[in-house]
Amino acid sequence: MKRIFTLLTAALLLGGLNNANAQIDTLIWEDFQDTANVFVTGWDAFPSGTVGAMNWTNFDEDGIADANARPQEWFLSAPYADADTATAMGDANFVAASSSWLQGYAPGNRNWMITPSFTVLDSTTRLFWKSAPRQTPTYIDGYSILVSTTDNNETSFTNQIFCAGQYLSGSGGIDSLVNYTFDPAGCFVHGEDGMFIEPDPTSTNVVGQLRPFEVNLWQFIGQDIYIAFLHNSDDDNLISVDDIGVIKTTVVNSVDDLAEKFNLNAYPNPANNNLQISFEMPATSNLEIAIYNVLGEKVKSMSNDNVVQGIYNHMFDVSDLAAGVYSVRISAEFGATTTSIIVE
Questions:
Q1: CATH fold group of domain 31-249
Q2: What are the pLDDT digits (tens) for 290-304?
Q3: What is the mean pLDDT of the chain?
Q4: DSSP state, 49?
């Protein structure tokens, strides 16, 4: 479901204590669950070049028909991996998919999915997303994420902030990656580290599971930008993306400066089983540590009364949380602070 909105301050959204305010601004959010409206209402059919446009753009630049009668641009699809078929709430999951397998095995696939314009306010503004190829390593699809600082015309996207490599040559399957070449060299290759994959019983390939990513947008501070997901693989198969978000996190003005002395740390980050929280209590106070998802819903918490001054550690089991971005918030009577984590 596409939502462009600003979340409330922590006192309302995150259940903050007393006079502490932590603000999470969700500038863009798209999880592709609004199946009646995604790629229909509010989605431009082609780049208009409009400065400050507030619609998403879905655009097939190459104009070449798909070899399997799939849509020529990005389209709504079920995920490829069994692990991704349901959301955290148990609903059927949907992703944005794009095909590079064109008629006549033609090269030149170029499918654009472009966000609305938004302003990068400070160094806490970050892009989050998930992606998965239909298969890896043979015929794995790659893609690029590009930024425009002017308008949403495809020729304006001159800043690359992420790239995933596509299959170029090689054979043997996931256990023979040394035999493979991917393009462009040096880009991320899904499954190369043995993570976020599941077996395909009919092939030496494996199926890609949705993997979370994060990029800080600090280099664009003060600018209005657009972000493009460009599927630019040639004659491979399918790529998918999901849960695209642009989020800004701010901690503002506690009662005094004590909250700045929490020295909050969360590790490992990314985490997949146990998350260790270390912090310092600068004064005796009631205390709550909580984990929130991107919608501001509390998913984990612990609290204690009259925690005395000192250094503490607390471990959360996050193995039951869906992969994605979360906020860890520590709240006391004198203030609060927040940090972000990724659960894989």
A1: Jelly Rolls (2.60.120)
A2: 999 877 788 999 988
A3: 86
A4: -
